[in-house]
Amino acid sequence: MRNVGAGAVTVKSLAQLHKQVVACERCERLRTYCGEVARIKRRAFADWDYWGKPVPGFGDERAWLWIIGLAPAAHGANRTGRVFTGDNSGNFLYAALHRAGLANQPHAVRIDDGLELSGCFISATARCAPPANKPTPDEVAACADYLDAEWRLLRQKRAILALGKIAWDAALALAARNGVSIPRPRPAFGHGAHVGLSPTLTLLGSYHVSQQNTFTGKLTPAMFDAVLRQAASFR
After folding, report:
1. Is the CB of residue 213 less than 8 Å from the CB of residue 219?
2. Neighbour tally for 43: CB within 10 Å
């Protein structure tokens, strides 16, 4: 639930927005969980000083491609402080972005590892790691105005790539809040699905880059590369 007043976020830069995200205390359940994870840690990361706070977006403010994921991983971004960093999902994602020429290196290990994105920005539907990787609808709603702020600030966006159905639904709701008329029937999520939000902006869908999908072959590197090429066609 939204425990602290959550209205429209009025910021003039991504840097200002990132500070607001990191300081957010809106969702008591999520803040408690992230703190517990940061305190207890995973044995393999016992020597880490976990981030344990909400995780801001990352990337190029001039991005044409905006990738929206689900939420930080408990021992990934909640540990490192950067989206999709320090876990297998990030290994898959950044390797693909590197192949597509959107990242300067194929790996993301820690916040100071030198990773840079060009033409791409990544954020999440929820900014705190949720128990069982499942934010509640209220928790998703509590982060909605952070997506709204990114919508306003990412002025050169041409394609939004939603990773998974929750991100797809959040992206459609985001577009609607920002004056886009959503087609009826409401566009259904699917890998490779796409819908025009305006003459210059397209929403695309992909299976999430989670281990559950990539380790089982539901999502392969070739499949994700194809979605990135599809996104580039709308640039």
Report:
1. yes
2. 6
Name, in order, each residue with C-beta under 8 angstroms of 152's C-beta and a sequence gap of 6 or more: 178
Other CB atoms within a 10 A radius of the CB of residue 215 amount to 11
Give the amino acid at 18.
Answer: H
Q: How many helices (H) and strands (E) does the chain have?
A: 9, 6
Give the span between the Cα atoms of 194 and 189, in whole angstroms.
8
* CATH class of domain segment(s) 14-232: alpha beta
Q: What is the per-residue pLDDT for 3?
A: 40
Residues in the chain, overall count: 235
For position 9, what pLDDT does the model report? 84
Cα–Cα distance, 67 to 17 (Å, whole number): 17
Q: What is the pTM of this model?
A: 0.95
SS3 105: coil
The model's pLDDT over 71-88, given as tens digits with 9 standing for 90+, comes to 999 999 999 999 999 999
pLDDT at 7: 56
What residue segments make up the domains of the chain, in order of their start? 14-232
Residues contacting 14, CB < 8 A, separation 6+: 57, 61, 150, 153
